[in-house]
Write a structure and sequence with these properties.
The longest helix is centred in the middle third of the chain and has 30 residues. The chain is mostly helical and 42 residues long.
């Protein structure tokens, strides 16, 4: 069973989800930086 299982490499969906999570994390970090700047300016 193990030798015929092609699930060793991650499927496309997992890679897409990881890329989306990374992008979302970067966007979240930028948004938090902006919020801190706005709060600091006021």
């Amino acid at each position: 069973m193990l030798w015929s299982d092609p699930e060793n490499e991650p499927p496309e969906e997992m890679r897409d989800m990881q890329a989306m999570l990374r992008r979302a994390g970067i966007l979240l970090a930028l948004a938090m930086l902006l919020a801190m700047l706005v709060v600091g300016l006021h």
